[in-house]
Amino acid sequence: MEKEVTFNTLNSVHALNVHNVLQRVLSDLAEQGLYPVPSVEMHKALYTQQRLERELSRDSTIALGAFNHGVLIGFLWANPSQGTLYLEWGAVDQQFRRRGVFLHLLRLLEEEARRRGYHKLWLYASRKNTPAINCYLMSGYAIEGVHARHFFDWDFITLGKILDASSGEMALEKAGRQNVISCSAN
Ligand SMILES: CC(C)(COP(=O)(O)OP(=O)(O)OC[C@H]1O[C@@H](n2cnc3c(N)ncnc32)[C@H](O)[C@@H]1OP(=O)(O)O)[C@@H](O)C(=O)NCCC(=O)NCCS
Hints:
Bound molecules: coenzyme A
CATH topology: Aminopeptidase
Order of helices and strands: EHHHEEEHEHEEHH
Distance between the termini: 47 Å
Strand order of the largest sheet: 1-2-3-4-5-7-6
């Protein structure tokens, strides 16, 4: 890891920077054939600066950024999902890749997830997205499911990492038993 890369939590102030990196990365993913073009278009339209301001300002969201001389060059954010933590998006700008930036972001995410009592992190990845899949495997995630002909007829996989089997109950308490039970009944 290069010395000039620093890491910090993100909030709504960083929404425009996240937006800009994400738009660039999404275009790259489509060009490289790693992600379905309709998904790219959907996510480009979905993650406006305003939407990201809302995402990054939620207390329940864990959002982390990597900075080079104060400029955002990588990020990830994760949201609670029924007692688990779902990794929504993560990316590193092209010219800063293969320096361990994302591995470090994943490590920090894990630490914070444990601190908040989550027992599991998980995510979807396009089966063609070898760079991302390798990175998650290297971080100790396991392939948990293969979803054939899934989003926009592309194969996707789910990857997950159990953090601490005994902390699952803590996350359930945190989410509020009432809410979890009434959600699952619907
Ligand atoms: C996936 C991504 C976030 C990785 O970021 P990164 O900072 O370059 O990753 P790291 O440097 O921490 O890589 C860690 C390991 O992952 C694997 N990896 C990363 N990029 C890879 C590539 N292009 N090809 C093969 N393996 C790769 C390697 O094992 C690497 O370790 P090594 O460099 O010692 O061999 C980055 O490529 C990216 O932004 N991609 C586009 C967005 C994306 O796909 N997001 C994930 C959506 S699920």
